[in-house]
Amino acid sequence: MKTTAEKVESCQVVLNIEVEPEELESSLEQAYRRLVSKANVPGFRRGKAPRQLLERYLGREALFDEALDRLLPKLYEQALSEQGIEAIAQPQFEITQLDPVIFKVTVPTRPTVELGDYLQLRIAPEPVEVTEEQIEEALDRLRHLHAVWLPVEREAHLGDMVAIDVEGRIGDKTVLSEKGRWYQLLPNSPFPVPGFAEKLEGVVKGEEREFTLSIPSDHPDTEVAGKECLFKVLASEVKEEHLPELDDDFAKSLGQEIESMELLRERVAADLKASRESQARIELEEKIIDALAAMSHIEYPTVLGERELERLVAAQREQFGGQVGLEAQLKLRGKTEDEFRNELRPVAEKFVLRSLILDKLSEVENIEVSDDEIDAEVERFSAGESGERVRQLFSSPIARNSLKRDLIMRKTMARLVQIATGAAMEETDK
Is residue 407 domain-shared with residue 289, that is, in the same domain? Predict the structure, then answer.
């Protein structure tokens, strides 16, 4: 075996390996012995046909492929050892010549991460405020959430709920057919098409209406986009919304030991602040990671980005109930799977970048997680009825190692935020 190695971009090494004739012949002989024991060659008992006849019967390509399928991975492993290369994922093989046999292997290797001077990084957190207007908006949403809808014997107004049977047709094709659907007449609603809610304003119980509306030209379903649709609608009931008063009785009805409007207002303000602080923290972390990435030198093989992309796609697939559900969702959005993947690719690459930065920083800062910390996290997850099942899940070494890594990443990110916001320096000065 003759081997040359060349480093290329994106943390990859290209091995060019030439197979020695005796290595190929030995592998061909082994392939012959494996195949002859399985092949039924006319005129010979199984396993007894000469090699020349077997080659003629199966084709030399079959013997050659069988030999290389075993030989190439073996020579690849030898080349890694000889060249002192550590592969982090499956390589790509390509046979570039047959006589003599020469093949190329593109090997993904460990990422290169050289952090910039992160100790000098400074990013001020954005202040988090909750205004009275935001509190009032949240309380108003609570009122609507606990509203009561009561039947009325009058014309429907915008904001009312109407029970309808609806059919939509474009030419001879039915594109919408539903019965007994509750539909709220919201102004400027885009569903099912813009103007639909306004067409039902003033309808009364038992009334039928027929009207035509244009499907928007940017509708996800290209088969109906831009076309005229004839709608037939039968209204069977009209309901209006009755909002509760914002008083102590309303506060008590929500439970959670809230006994007055004053306490409810305080709870809403606290929840809003916690939510905004959480979002502000996420945004701050992203800014810090971006800033550190900009001052650092980071290279990684493309396979890491592709691996993370596949994880994100799999998560979306699971969310929509499998591949069929994902395809249906993409059709509604008017996107192909390739377009969907391209949208997720920057997210995947950013996740890889974040992981590499935090991995390196945890190493530089000697950040560790003890068994007691892992146990405490397991107990936190185990609260509730399914506690024993959760404990059982985290009893395996794989699950504990995964949890340990997650804790290290969190502690490392917390340390980086301390540094970037100056909190670490304040701690030192105390």
Answer: no
CA distance 264 to 271: 10
Mark whether 165 and 139 lie in a shared domain.
no
CATH assignment at residue 412: 1.10.3120.10
Cis peptide bond prior to 346, omega within 30° of 0: no
Give the burial string for 143-179 (b: 16+ CB within 10 Å, else e). eeeeeeeeeeeeebeeebbbbbebbbeeeeeebeeee
Give per-residue pLDDT as tens, 128-170: 999 999 999 999 999 999 999 999 999 999 999 999 999 999 9
Specify the 3-state DSSP secondary structure of 225: coil
- Which tens digits make up the pLDDT trace of 330-354? 877 778 889 999 999 999 999 999 9
Q: Angle at Cα 165 formed by Cα 164 and Cα 170, nearest 5°?
A: 120
Indicate the pTM of the whole model: 0.77
Domain count across the chain: 4
Query: What DSSP string runs through 134-148?
Result: HHHHHHHHHHHHT-E
Q: Which domain holds residue 182?
A: 148-242
Same domain, 202 and 325: no
